[in-house]
Amino acid sequence: MTVWIVEPRDPLIVRDGRPFGPVPGARAVSLPFPFPSTVAGGVRTREGLDASGFFPPSAVARVKQVRVRGPLLVELDTAGEIAEWFAPAPSDALVLDLDERSRKAALLKTLVPLQTLPGAATDLPEGLALVGLPRPDPRKPSGDAPRYWRWPFFERWLLGPKDQEVEFAQMGHHGPVREARMHVGIRPETQTADEEAGA
Q1: Sign of the C-alpha dihedral, residues 128, 92, 16, 122?
Q2: Which residues lie below 8 Å from residue 108, measured CB to CB, with a gap of 6+?
Q3: Considering only CA atoms, which of 56, 60, 164 is closest in space to residue 110?
Q4: Are 169 and 102 within 8 A, CB to CB?
Q5: Does the reported pTM lie above 0.85?
Q6: What distance in Å separates the CA atoms of residue 108 and residue 166, rounded to the nearest whole number?
Q7: DSSP codes of every residue in 8-25
Q8: Which of 22, 38, 85, 167 could be 183's S-S partner, Cβ–Cβ 3.0 to 4.6 Å?
Q9: Around 110, how many Cα atoms within 13 Å sit in the side-chain half-sphere?
C-alpha cells in the first residue's frame, strides 16, 4: 500500500457544488474535509499524467483500477513525516458539556440502539435502529468537541466505548480551517470593483 501525503503548496479549497460566479451574494464555502471521491479523482488524475504533465485518454481504463482508501487527516513533523494520524469523530459518540464554564473538557457518552415502542415505526432500512442514550441526560451537546480524534484515542473508543470525562486536547482537534470566498468583478477601465458584479 502506498501512502500519499497531500500538502497543498498554495491555498486549496474543497467546496460544495453550488454555483460560484460574479453575482451578488455568491459565496464559496469550504467543506469540513474532502470527500473520498474528490481525493480518488485527484489521485487517479495524478497517476495518469505522463512525463509531459498531460493526461492521455489511454490512461483512463488503467487509473480506474487504482483503489483509494481515505482520506485521513495527519499532522507532519519538522522533517515532513507523519507524526500523528486523526480519524473523524465516530457517530456513536455524544460529547456533552460538563457545565457552562468548561470549554476544555466534557462528558463523552456512547449512543446505543434503542428499542422502539410497540406500534412505532421508522423509515430506516431493514437492520438499522434508532440510536440514543439509554437514559435521558439534561446536559447540552458540546459545541467545542473536536471533529477529529487522535488515533490512539479513536482506537480505544472502537475497542471499548465507555462513558467518561475527557479533555479536548487529549481527544483531538477541529481539523482544517473552513473558509468562505467570494468573487469580485473588476471594471477594466478603472481597475476598481464593479458594484453590480461582486458578492
Answers
A1: positive
A2: 93, 94, 95, 96, 163, 164, 165, 166, 171
A3: 164
A4: no
A5: no
A6: 7
A7: -SS----B-SS--SSSTT
A8: 22
A9: 11
Q: What is the CA radius of gyration of the chain?
A: 23
Task: Calculate the dihedral angle through the C-alpha atoms of 56, 61, 64, 65, rounding to the nearest 10 degrees.
Answer: -130
CB neighbour list of residue 94: distance below 8 Å, 6 or more residues apart: 108, 109, 110, 111, 133, 141
Whether the predicted pLDDT of 129 surpasses 80: yes
Query: Alpha-carbon distance 59 to 48, whole Å?
Result: 6
Do residues 16 and 31 touch, judged by C-beta distance below 8 A?
yes
103-133 core/surface letters (b: 16 or more CB in 10 A; e: else):
eebbbbbbbeeeeeeeeeeeeeeeeeeeeee
Which residue reads 477529529 in cell numbers? 148
Q: Which tens digits make up the pLDDT trace of 18-44? A: 777 666 667 777 888 888 898 899 899
Within 13 Å and on the Cβ side, how many CA atoms surround 198?
9
